[in-house]
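Troubleshooting: if your tokenizer reports a length mismatch, compare against these two reference records.
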Amino acid sequence: MPEPVLTMLSLPPLSLYIHIPWCVRKCPYCDFNSHQSDTELPESEYIDALIQDLNADAELAQGRPLGSIFFGGGTPSLFSAAAIGRILDHAERRIGFASDIEITLEANPGTFEQARFTDYRRAGVNRLSIGIQSFADQQLQALGRIHDAKAALKAVDTARRAGFDNLNLDIMHGLPGQSIEAAMNDLDTALSFAPEHFSWYQLTIERNTVFYTKPPTLPLEDTLADIQDIGHQRLLDAGFSRYEVSAYHRGPKARHNINYWQFGDYLGIGAGAHSKITQPEHNVIFRQWKTRQPEHYLAAHNTPARLKNPYAAGREELTAAMLPLEFLINGLRLSDGCPSEYFSQRTGLAGDALEPQWQQLLERDLVTPRHERLAATAFGQRFLNDVLSAYGD
């Protein structure tokens, strides 16, 4: 049976992800493309490379302004505000910004001072995501973090005094040896700062990490479940709403992440960064990824280009058979799911491409009827892997 023809009805929104790959120290639980650096960072050279990378990909914007930018890592706050400002200025000139653009920078406690945070704000960053993880020294040591509880407390206060009024705090739970009381102490301390947004999630052991080869002793399953349930209720009581599996908001939602979850487009620049791009005129949706090792990325512009962008390491077109899972794998993480029309608009497929699996999942109370929204039920969100397995691995 021939594969359906993709007919794109409209271009989705566009975001930009900028990867800064260096850290002071690689954490034992981290499986991101981050690299410990014991020498002075090649800040200026790396920004030069980012600018060339963006120039090579700029035509993929197809006239769309950027609705959000996210500096991730690694530890982006190791770079100066001048460097961050330089790439932001170039992105605005080269592609353009939406009038209400959200610009997020990830920061770790201990890698900044108040003057630097004030300068980030002046450079255009209007949202901070601080990787606190815990406010307890014992837990921070177990996680291999470079900061202590005092630095974590100071980080949030510093961000507020620097003028940031859109703040995300990254808090982990289910940490080695963590009790329910200790987990709630972390949450209560974080709540005392009245952040606009929380990323609150359980530590998971990922492949290619130190914790995978040398697993720590984690709380028992019953304790993990109690931490999740009690903490969730505590966040609701504090006025937060959960809109994604591990995302809570009382202020603005994370616009950049929502664009990912709703199958929007994004350009990725920097070592190991990924892009997802729609090209209606070619009936194509593709993913692209950049050279992963920082030293290879920095040298890429001096090597013969295998693709249009010399920083690109590979590209994959998404077939019609792949698109239902690609769309749902993140969309169903949202508590309210996605508007049903997004599926056709952003995949080029008719809604019937989700059948007969959707009907089977509906009969098991794992999803809701798809005429208005594509969403998992509360029961289905607890078993998302089962839901997604209906559309392939």
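Reference record two:
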Amino acid sequence: MRKLLSLALLTLLLAVVSCKKQPPAQPAAPGPEVHQQQTAPAPEADKPAAAQPQQTPPAAASGDLVAIPLVLPKPQFVGTPENLMGIANLDKKPDGWVQPPFMAPKGVVNVALNKPVTSSEPEPIMGELKMITDGDKEATDGSVVELGPFSQWVQVDLGESHEIYAVAVWHFHKQARVYFDVIVQVSDDPEFVTGVTTLFNSDTDNSSGLGVGQDKNYVDDRNGLVVDGKGTKGRYVRCYSAGNNSSDLNHYIEVEVYGKK
């Protein structure tokens, strides 16, 4: 009798436990559908948050700045460049370096093209002063103006005052040369006595008498020298040099002044 009672109680217990385990098993069927509803929108919700930072920089952030219409001449080095290691304060560019685009406000052009040129040496040893602004910057023999030794300058009259954003100078790029005491100045005074702004000065010992410069010597190759004019106003641009590592003579192929009224 007791055995029958025990079996009955055991059967009843198993039935109760079975009933308690079934409710959790029922949600298992809709489980995949709930999972899909939660995970499918998640990537869509994340996408706008990730895309927002990419849209924040406005297209007009660069303002009205554009690259000046600077065209570099062809490379014309002849023979093996001389050893320039002994030149102090030399700005060493990597092989194959090319002048990057120079940015300036829209409307900036070469206001020096075909403008009159004067010099500390009115009668050059070779060439004519007008060649310095004729637009020909190639390193051919017929494009070079040669001035005498020591410190010499050439001056471009822009005709009227301009906002100057860049001055580009090519001395001589048929060989790898370094020209010394290179100075670029701007003024509204043709005598450069008053209102003079110095844009570049590599004269570190003031041997030219125009102040101690902080800029470096550089190899005059096809890139020439591109000086930041910073919007300086002036009618006249004067460029100095004091010989080079090959001779005491001074040379100019082209001077370009990028500005606007």
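Descriptive notes for reference record two:
- Residues 91 and 146 are 25 Å apart (CA to CA).
- The mean pLDDT is 82.
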